[in-house]
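Consider the following input, taken from an annotated entry for Flavin reductase family protein (Aliisedimentitalea scapharcae).
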Amino acid sequence: MFYRPEDGHGLPHNPFNAIITPRPIGWISTRSAEGVNNLAPYSFFNGVAYTPPQVMFATTGTKEDQDGTKDSAANIEATGVFCVNVVEYAMRDAMNASSGILPRDVDEFDHAGLEAVDCQTINCARVGGAPAALECKLTQIVTLPGAANRVVFGEVVGIHLRDNCIVDGRFDVTTFQPLARLGYRDYSVVTDLFSLSRPDD
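Applying the prediction step yields:
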């Protein structure tokens, strides 16, 4: 099968998201200029540089109570900071609850039954008990082609690691089983690892 996206795929569901899998989930926490905490998962997310450490996430679509964007991007534009929380399998239901489209003055931490803990280097909350959290300062927002497609880049200025996730000096993902986004409404969880040495190691 071959298709041009501009012509449509002819399938019952769009296969694009199912092709690019698995995708890590950036559980992005922000705080509005008015002091309201926000939390939302984004599967167009990844790390993009080591030195200094930098991350990105993409937001698509809009909300009626925001001007051409969503709460996360609007809050980041207003404050210049955000936090990326790592989603573990045990928090899958809370992550899903925070994905709902809620009014801008609703705190998703409260809505999902999560503890909001203040970050140390930025004026923002993080998810209490998360395996890891990356405190970020905005570096740039890039507008992409299409309606309301934007990529947010940030420099990581503070990192939280849950103590029980550090095993023999390594951050061990098998201790918490990170959640990954697949296509459609599907997810996966990391439970098994294997290692490969590069040819020049």
